[in-house]
Amino acid sequence: MQFHSGPHFLDPRVPTIGAWINDGLGSLSDNLPLFINIGPRFFDKKDAHYLDPAYDAVNFKIDPRNPLDYAKPSNGMTAADRLKNLNLTNKLDRLAAEQYPLDPVIEAGMKSHELAYRMQTAVPETLDFTQESAETQAFYGLDQNETRAFGQQLLAARRLSERGVHFI
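Predicted structure:
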């Protein structure tokens, strides 16, 4: 915990190192977040605290069928319908931002909605381990029940870092 939060790790309002990296480095990928959490959270559920809420980690489940809550539309919407939905949401967010120009939560929400739309295609592709050779899957332990869960986390971390995610 001290590694992630510095010398004041007992103070729950200090941003984690992942939030600072997210804040300072900018993006290498337009389709994936900069800071991803793939493990359980035992302590504070926030990362950014006094930084903008947009710098919190995005929680992933390493489940290729359902890696991210709401990553796959379940209502049968087409890509065109999803884009229309995003555009409408963006217009409503911008109206709220005009009314409350100093509210960082509104700006973070707009960024989050846009990223979520792009992640709907990027995340399933990133966590599609069938693209890896059988040798690579065995190397990560995906072929054994005892090592599969941890191996999937390691393989996901590798694939996410290859796609520009700064902090996992």
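Summary: Residues 26 and 91 are 25 Å apart (CA to CA).
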